[in-house]
# Entry
Amino acid sequence: MMEIQVKSYPAIISIEMKTIFVKYSVDNMSLAINISKGVYKKIRQSISNKYKKIGLSALQVRRLKNLPDAGFQTTKFLDHYITFYSREELLHGVEEIFINEIYKTAFPPDSRPVIIDCGANIGLSVIYFKTQYPNCTVTAFEPDPMNHDLLLKNIKSMKLENVIVRKEAVWVKDVTLNFHSEGSTASRLEEEVDKNKEDQTVPVKAIRLNDLIHSKVDMLKVDIEGAEYEVLKDIENKLHYIEILFLEYHGTFKQNNRLTEMLDILTRNKFQFYIKEGHNVYQQPFYDHMSSGKYDIQLNIFCFKTP
# Structure
């Protein structure tokens, strides 16, 4: 008689089920750990205070963020007080200049650098320079009437010395120009007056920057909302005096030749440069590159000379 062997399948199934259960539990545990890490990171970010670096408490930052979008306000800053108009621009400027320190250089703290600040706005850059290099000399240009007044007020409040403030726009010649004043970092020179915005346009005195550069300038900061192309071309013969140059470039796609020309000027004058996006204009450039406002490209160009 033939014997029939019966295998114990239930035991095998039981082992396989245990394996599946263990794998399922491990996968769930990994998922739970990842979720916990994400939640912890979000909580940590929400309670962390990057502004602590400059003495602003979390309570002060929360107060600033809850202020109206626009309106004259005063806040404590570096053991003094500064006055501003745009809460959003203040926080952006503080993060860019004091937290990220985009103007940080290798000048010794006890040095006496000569700095020209074209487009000083309400003075955050000036305050940074004087904080880092108390003995520096700063010439600050700000043509916007409201920003100019805030600049003067903040310099006085911060008790800054050796700061020369000029209510002028830097340009390629001495002339009176139309200035579209928004009381913000977006204020700019206009070749023609927009009839729909005549009430925001004021005549301002413009001076030729080239005529002011006769000796070594340790740092030249040019943040003049679209006029940088013409000014850089005009001061090319003075670039040998400049050690460090910061350019904020604003342009459209149709003006790409301007950007390449500016980089050519820098290269032939022995500058090396590093370019960062100043403002993320397009999230999907291939798709939505026709939907921006005045500028398609906003870049920060850091220019320096190396041996």
